[in-house]
Design a protein that fits this description.
Number of domains: 3
Oligomer: single chain
Order of helices and strands: HHHHHHEEEEHHEEEE
Distance between the termini: 10 Å
Number of strands: 8
Structural class: alpha+beta
């Protein structure tokens, strides 16, 4: 989830439930704490394309997050000494915990047990940027801009939280419907696929990206969850068995990419001498928005099988 939405979650929660009990300080505390796990986003400042592989790792880890929560609560104590430390600790933990929840609902995954495990679970019910979700959270603040409406802010904020919970359930229900549509499509195939998945598309929860892999071919479809309609949207070839790709997969960067990607696409082009291998993920290829793929990695493979990763920023198509 984007940081604006994370911040609005904290602000809306504070205005609805904690400002009256804790005081005005609850708003900035929850706003900041709701962004705490994104401290691992600092790795992106390195300019290394592989930094994206560390997103949602050490900042989002259930094993390390208590340490970050304790440190941030200690910092808050310096600025709001009038509040008991247990209150600061509780608000900080609440904001950070909600951050994990809102990151889990979209399709990027959270490495909850880093560094002991690279398991990256995801619920994949909401696109990483969801305007409806952001609008529901921002609406109480917008409605209460006039001073005459300020007294309504706590009640409107509580309604907003309930609306957000209902919206997330609605998105989850639509994903379940989309999975059923994809399951019917799979049942009509002559052979079972090696992979199938439903990814959220942007601009609302009524359209989903269905992905089915048979052999070295991904079949893409746009699924309309409420109507149950499935539109074939083409095919994407992948070459995991190509010798150049196997050489990449034998390297540490290749292993990390394969583990990070959900639906990896490996492409090989002749590049004298040797070959150029590019890797991307269908998780980040929208069927609704016409844009270039993001998080694309490239490798040079010599005729002898030696692999050199391209680390220049120009070789990396940036995304969130």
């Amino acid at each position: 989830m984007d940081n604006i939405t994370h911040t609005l979650v904290g602000v809306t929660l504070a205005n609805g439930f904690y400002r009256s009990r804790v005081g005005k300080a609850a708003v900035p505390i929850l706003a900041i704490a709701s962004n705490l796990p994104d401290l691992d986003a600092l790795v992106v400042l390195s300019g290394d394309p592989r930094s994206v592989l560390l997103r949602r790792t050490f900042g989002h880890s259930l094993l390390l997050l208590p340490i970050w929560v304790l440190l941030l609560a200690w910092i808050f104590r310096r600025f709001v000494p009038q509040l008991p430390f247990r209150t600061l600790l509780g608000l900080t933990a609440l904001g950070a915990g909600l951050h994990l929840l809102f990151d889990l609902v979209n399709s990027f995954g959270v490495v909850l047990l880093w560094p002991l495990s690279q398991w990256r679970p995801e619920l994949a019910t909401v696109f990483i940027l969801d305007l409806t979700l952001t609008a529901l959270l921002a609406l109480p603040l917008l409605l209460c801009l006039p001073k005459s409406r300020r007294r309504s802010l706590p009640g409107l904020s509580r309604i907003s939280i309930l609306a957000v919970a209902g919206y997330l359930l609605f998105c989850g229900g639509n994903r379940w419907l989309a999975e059923r549509v994809l399951a019917r499509e799979i049942a009509s195939l002559s052979s079972a696929p090696q992979f199938s998945y439903v990814f959220p598309e942007p601009l609302g929860p009524l359209r989903w990206r269905g992905v089915i892999r048979q052999g070295d071919t991904y079949h893409l479809s746009l699924i309309h969850s409420l109507s149950g309609r499935l539109e074939a949207r083409g095919e994407v070839a992948t070459s995991p068995g190509d010798p150049a790709v196997r050489a990449v997969l034998a390297t540490e960067p290749g292993v990390r990419l394969q583990r990070f990607f959900k639906a990896p696409v490996w492409e090989v082009a002749q590049h004298n001498p040797g070959a150029r291998v590019t890797a991307s993920d269908l998780r980040f290829r929208s069927l609704v928005l016409k844009r270039d793929p993001v998080f694309v990695f490239a490798f040079q493979v010599s005729p002898a099988g030696e692999v050199r990763e391209e680390l220049h920023p120009s070789d990396f198509v940036r995304g969130r």
